[in-house]
Amino acid sequence: MLLENMKSPDDLKHLTISQLQQLSEEIRRFLIENLSKTGGHLAPNLGVVELTIALHYCFNSPKDKILWDVGHQAYVHKILTGRKDDFPTLRQYKGLCGFPKMAESAHDVWETGHSSTSLSGAMGMASARDLKKENYHVIGVIGDGALTGGMAFEALNHIGHEKKNVIVVLNDNEMSIAPNVGAMHNYLGKLRTDHIYNRAKDEVESLLKAIPAVGGKLAQLAEKVKDSMKYMLVSGILFEELGFTYIGPIDGHNLELVIDSLRTAANTRGPVLLHVITKKGKGYLPAEQNAMKWHGTDTYKIESGEMIKAVAAAPAYKSVFADTLIKLTQQDDRIVAITPAMPDGSGLLKYASVYPERMFDVGIAEQHACTFAAGLATQGMKPFLAIYSTFLQRAYDQLIHDVARMKLPVVFAVDRAGLVGADGETHQGVYDIAFMRAIPNMVIMAPKDENEMQHMMKTAAEYDGPISFRYPRGNGLGVKMDEELKALPIGQMEVVREGKGVAVLSFGHIYDVAEKAINLLQMDGIMPMFVNARFCKPLDEELLLRLAKENMDIVTVEEGCVQGGFGSAVMEFYAEQGYHNMVVEPMGIPDYFVEHGSVKEQRQEISLTAEAIAARVRSLLPVNKQRA
Ligand SMILES: Cc1ncc(C[n+]2csc(CCOP(=O)(O)OP(=O)(O)O)c2C)c(N)n1
Ligand SMILES: CC(=O)[C@@H](O)[C@H](O)COP(=O)(O)O
Ligand SMILES: [Mg+2]
Using CA atoms in the order 434, 439, 442, 448, what is the torsion angle rounded to 10 degrees? Predict the structure, then answer.
C-alpha cells in the first residue's frame, strides 16, 4: 500500500509511473470506501485522481500555487497533502471541510465553494509574484462547468491580455452537475473530437523552414498562411486568440501524458491552457453511469450503489416547488422557469419533463440568469428564477439594476435559504433577507411550511412586480397540502395564537422551531402571542402598531442574518413610527460564517433552538425584567 506512506506531496516525487498508477487506484478505492460512510462529492473527485497526482508530482505545492475551482473536487488534493486520516470526519461538525480551507493546510492556497473564482485568484497571485519578483508557478484547475461562469471569462481576458505566466488546467468531463450546457460546451466538444493537435502547427512551420534558400521567405509567408491554417490546424483557437498557448485535448487519466503535458506547460512562457479530458465518476461504475446523481451523494452501499438515506415522511421543498410550478403553468402560459446550472437540485428537471420549452438552464451564470429573466419579463412572460440563496449573491446588481428598478414581474424562488448543513460557510443561505430587503419595490415572503409555499407561489404568479419567496434545503414538515391554491394578501402576517406580554414573530421555515418554543412555554403556563410573519417586505404595519399599543415585547426569529434581517425591519419600523421604548429582540444568524456540520448542530451552535427562543421569551417576562 503506497497510500499509507503518503504524508505530503514530496512523498510522490520518487515514485515511478507504475507506482503512481498503483497509487491512483489506491486513492480511488479510498474515496469509494470513505465516502460510502460520509457522503460527499464522489464523482468529481474520482474524475481528478490522476490529474491531482500529476499536479503534485510536477509542481512544488505550496510554493507553486494550485487553485481548485469550486473546490468540491479537492479531496484527492487533501489526501495527498496529509489529511487522509481526517476523511472519516468529512463535512461533519468541526471535521474536515468539503472545500479547500486555508486553516486546514498551507497547501490550500485559495478557498472556494462558489464556482468560477480560481482564475481571478490565480491572476492575482501571478501579478503579486511578478511585482515582488518572485518565482513560482500558479495553476488554476477549472472544470468545464465552472468555465461557463462569467468570472472565468473575465479572468481569461485579463490573463491573456497581460500575458501572465499562469497555467489553466481545464478539467473537461462534459458535466456540470447535470450535463453541461452552452456554446462553450459545444466548442469544447468540437475540440474533444478534433484529432488535430498543436504539433501539426509546429510541424508545418519546421517543414517550410527546412526548404533551402526560399525557406526563410516561405516561412514568413507561412506565418501568414499559418494564421489562416491555424483555424484549420490548431485546435483551441479560441484560447489561442485570447493569448493562451493551448495544449490538448489530452486523456486526463493517462498519468504519463498528463505529467508530460504539465511539464510542457511549466516550460511554456505566458498563459497556457491545458485541456484535459476526464470521466466524472471514473472507476466506480454507478458514478460513471450517472455522474449527476453521484455528483454529491449521501452514504451508499458500495456493491450495489444503493443510496442509504432515511425515507423522508415529508416531500422535499424542491419537489413541492416543481409540482406547484407545473400546476401554475397549466393555468398561466406566461410562466417560464430558469436555473443557473442546478436543474436537479432546484427540482426543475421535473418541470422540464412537462414543459421542456419553458425551462432554461443557463449554466453557471447567475448574473445572466437574473437579467435574462428581466428580459423575458419585459415581453410579458412570468419568469420564476429558481436560485440558491447563496448563489443569488452573484446576481445582486442584476437584481437591483435590471429587475427591481424597472419593477419587472420576476419571481425569485430562493432555494437553500437558511442553514444548509454539510456544504458549510460558502453555501449557507443566510444573507438573502438582508440584501433583498434593502432594495426598493421588492416583495419578500417566506413560508412557514411546504403548504404555505404553494400559496406563496400562487401569490407570486399573480403579483405584478418583483417578488421573492425563500425556502430551505431538504424536506417540509409533512403538513396537509391544500388542493386549491389561494393568493395571500400582500404584507399580511398570520396570528397563529393570541397572547399577552410577549409576541414571537417567526419569519419563514424556522416556524417549526419557534412553535416548539411556544409549546415549551405553554407547559409552564406562559402564553406569548405567536405570529407567522410571512412577509418581511412590506411589513404588516397594522399588526405591528397593535402590538405597540398593547405594550408587547417582541422576539423575532429568522434563519437569516440578524444584521439587516427581518428583526431589523421590525426595529426600524418602530423607530420610524416613534415607538422608542419598544423591546424587539432579534434572533437569527450571528455575525460570523457558520461552518459545516448538520443543520441541527449549526442551530445549536448559534442558539437558534426552541429552548433558546423560549429562554429569550422568559427573559422578557416582567418578573425577570425586574430582576435584570
Ligand atoms: C456560483 C456557483 N453556482 C453554482 C454552483 C453549484 N455547483 C457546484 S459544482 C457545479 C458544477 C461544476 O462543474 P465543473 O466545474 O465542470 O466540475 P465537475 O463537477 O464536472 O468536476 C455547480 C453548478 C456553485 N458551486 N457556485
Ligand atoms: C459544490 C456545490 O456547490 C454543489 O454541489 C452543492 O453542494 C449542491 O448543493 P445541494 O446538495 O444543496 O443541491
Ligand atoms: Mg465538469
Answer: 0
The angle formed by the CA atoms of residues 511, 516 and 519, to the nearest 5 degrees, is 125
Are 542 and 612 found together in one domain? yes
Q: Which amino acid is at 463?
A: Y
Average of per-residue pLDDT across 489-503 = 97
Give this complex's ipTM.
Answer: 0.99
Query: How many independent structural domains does the chain possess?
Result: 3
Query: Could you tell me the pLDDT band of residue 327, with boundaries at 50, 70 and 90?
Result: very high
pLDDT tens for 477-493 read 999 999 999 999 999 99
Tell me if residue 21 falls in helix, strand or coil. Answer: helix
Task: Give the catalytic positions in this structure.
Answer: 280, 366, 394
Q: Is 255 exposed, middle or buried (0-12, 13-18, 19+ CB in 10 A)?
A: buried
Grid coordinates standing for 223?
506565418
- Ligand number nearest CA of 97 is 2
Asked whether the predicted pLDDT for residue 262 surpasses 50, the reply is: yes
Is the dihedral angle over the CA atoms 541, 546, 551, 554 positive or is it negative? negative
Q: What is the pLDDT of residue 214?
A: 67
Non-local (6+) Cβ contacts of 231 within 8 A are: 237
Q: Which residues of 53-86 are buried (b: 16+ CB within 10 A; e: fewer)?
A: bbbbbbbebeebbbbbbbbbbbbbbbbbbbbbee
Domain carrying residue 110: 3-294
Residue 72 Cβ < 6 Å to ligand 2:
yes
- pLDDT, tens digit, for every residue of 195-226? 544 445 566 666 666 666 666 676 677 666 65
Mean pLDDT of the chain, nearest integer: 95
What pLDDT is attached to residue 199? 47
Strand partners, 384: 337, 411
Confirm whether 299 is domain-assigned: no
- Going across the sheet that includes 272-277, the strands are 65-68, 138-143, 167-172, 272-277, 245-251
CB-based contact 90:56 (threshold 8 Å)? no
Nearest-Å Rg of the Cα atoms of the chain is 28
Asked if residue 427 belongs to a known ligand binding site, the reply is no
CATH number at residue 156: 3.40.50.970
How many whole angstroms separate alpha carbon 281 and alpha carbon 46?
5
Per-residue pLDDT, averaged over 61-77, amounts to: 98
Closest CA to 62 of 42, 47, 82: 82
Q: Is residue 477 part of a domain?
A: no
Measured from the Cα of 177, ligand 2's closest atom is 5
How close is the Cα of 180 to the center of ligand 3, in Å?
A: 7
Does residue 444 share a domain with residue 337? yes
Model confidence at 626: pLDDT above 90: no
Q: What is the dihedral of CA 379, 380, 384, 385, to 10 degrees?
A: 20
114 lines ligand 2 (CB under 6 A): no
Which are the contacts of 132, defined by CB distance < 8 A and separation ≥ 6? Answer: none
